[in-house]
């Protein structure tokens, strides 16, 4: 469903009020982009593209029309009628557009969400039973026209046909939320989250309903569950930061800029280290920092080589965790030998976490990739309150 992206990344939930104008643009641009979103929901992609292009012209400084075009091409790439080559081209266009939107405004949540979905491995979608999916699509059209009662009727018909259809429960809750019936909305959002625990939008919408009822402890748990579902989902972290800030606790962005990556060259089979070029004003480019990144990259390549040789059954996360630990161990020896020290604040923060036995948790939550899913789910099963506790103890976000 489109609203997984469109409404899951709406600015009221992910960007501060001061930044909204920069992302959304002037009133004319906003109106045109909204028309485009309605047309996307109706499946009228050509007409939607024209509206987004007009919105971009109305305010060339606004990132939202550009990220909306990225969304459109992402949606197009999922059309069953297109060829594999057309699908590839559409996804490349989506990547280019959202990268451009992020370059224009790094806080554009729609661009961030589309980029995240493009980077993640595709998962099988739930297939609604009977005509439940068709009814939900009819509800989407009505919802886009703000006919919330009419949309609700369609969603309720859908869940009557397929009680396991989480999206229909979610969107029914959204109708109640739009009509300010908070308790009814909460019930349906909880049902959606129960049916699809990895549905980060269900958890975020539940948090909204709980916020409206001032149920603060439950809201915190819902936001922690949203982060636990997809730790790379920027909007969930932004919402948690807003919640914590409202209760007197500031979350500090880790702000890690990864400056090296090691891998095995598929053509030659040799180790390949990719280092980011140093910026002239880089304050964290000392010898120890450089040594850390080189050791990390070499350890990553070594782990990848072992995995290719099927030595020890190494997973992507196991390789990453071992590489980070090896780099921290190596840099400690380097510091002792040369009387120099690590300078990058993000690396220093991660080292403190490693020293506290929290490196695994930090990488899972602050540097998450979808390839880490098995380890994340295992960690959550062992630490059911782990996300909330980590945030409350260390006050960090990606």
Key traits:
398 residues; mainly alpha; two-stranded antiparallel sheet; 20 helices; 66% helix; 4% strand
Sheet having the most strands: 2 strands, parallel
Question: Judging from the principal axes of the Cα atoms, what is the shape?
Answer: globular
| Uncertain stretches | 7-22
Radius of gyration: 23 Å
Read across the widest sheet, the strand sequence of neighbours is 1-4
Q: Which structural class is indicated by helix and strand composition?
A: mainly alpha
Percent helix? 55-70%
Compute the separation of the termini in Å: 27 Å
Number of strands: 4
Order of helices and strands: HHHHHHHHHHHHHHEEEHHHHHHE
Overall pLDDT, averaged? 87
Number of helices: 20
Residues in β-strands, percent: under 5%
Question: Can you tell me about this structure?
Answer:
With 398 residues, the chain is mainly alpha-helical. The protein is 66% helix and 4% strand. It has 20 helices and 4 strands. The protein has helices at 11-14, 17-24, 27-41, 45-58, 64-76, 84-104, 109-119, 132-144, 148-161, 166-178, 182-195, 200-212, 216-229, 234-246, 287-308, 316-338, 345-355, 359-366, 373-382, 386-394, and strands at 252-253, 260-264, 271-275, 396-397. The protein has a two-stranded parallel sheet with strand order 1-4. A two-stranded antiparallel sheet has the order 2-3. β2 (260-264) and β3 form a beta hairpin. The radius of gyration is 23 Å and the shape is globular. The two termini are 27 Å apart. The relative contact order is 0.07. Residues 7-22 have low confidence and may be disordered.
């Amino acid at each position: 469903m489109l609203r997984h992206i469109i409404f899951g990344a709406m600015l009221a939930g992910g960007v501060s009020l001061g930044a909204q104008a920069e992302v959304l643009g002037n009133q004319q641009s906003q109106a045109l982009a909204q028309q485009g979103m309605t047309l996307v929901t109706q499946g009228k992609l050509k007409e939607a593209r024209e509206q987004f292009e007009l919105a971009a012209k109305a305010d060339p400084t606004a990132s939202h029309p550009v990220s909306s075009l990225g969304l459109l091409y992402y949606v197009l790439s999922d059309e069953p009628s297109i060829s594999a080559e057309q699908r590839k081209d559409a996804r490349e266009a989506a990547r280019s557009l959202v990268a451009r939107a992020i370059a224009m405004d790094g806080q554009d949540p729609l661009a961030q969400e589309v980029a995240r979905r493009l980077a993640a491995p595709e998962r099988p979608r739930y297939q609604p039973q009977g005509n439940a999916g068709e009814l939900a699509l009819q509800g989407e059209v009505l919802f886009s026209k703000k006919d919330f009662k009419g949309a609700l009727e369609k969603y309720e018909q859908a869940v009557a046909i397929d009680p396991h259809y989480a999206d229909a429960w979610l969107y029914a809750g959204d109708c109640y939320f739009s009509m300010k019936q908070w308790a009814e909305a909460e019930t349906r959002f909880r049902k959606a989250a129960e049916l699809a625990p990895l549905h980060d939008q269900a958890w975020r919408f539940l948090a909204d309903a709980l916020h409206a009822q001032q149920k603060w402890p439950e809201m915190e748990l819902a936001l922690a569950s949203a982060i636990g579902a997809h730790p790379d989902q920027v909007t969930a972290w932004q919402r948690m930061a807003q919640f914590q800030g409202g209760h007197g606790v500031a979350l500090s962005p880790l702000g890690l800029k990864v400056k090296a990556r090691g891998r095995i060259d598929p053509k030659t089979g040799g180790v390949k280290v990719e280092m980011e070029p140093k910026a002239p004003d880089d304050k964290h480019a000392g010898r120890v920092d450089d040594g850390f990144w080189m050791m990390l990259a070499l350890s990553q390549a070594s782990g990848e080589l072992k995995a290719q040789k099927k030595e020890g059954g190494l997973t992507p996360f196991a390789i990453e965790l071992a590489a980070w630990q090896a780099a921290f161990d190596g840099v400690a020896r380097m510091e002792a030998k040369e009387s120099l020290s690590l300078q990058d604040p993000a690396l220093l923060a991660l080292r403190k976490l490693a020293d506290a036995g929290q490196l695994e948790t930090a990488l899972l939550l602050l540097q998450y990739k979808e390839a880490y899913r098995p380890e994340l789910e295992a960690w959550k099963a062992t630490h059911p309150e782990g996300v909330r506790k980590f945030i409350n103890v260390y006050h960090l976000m990606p």
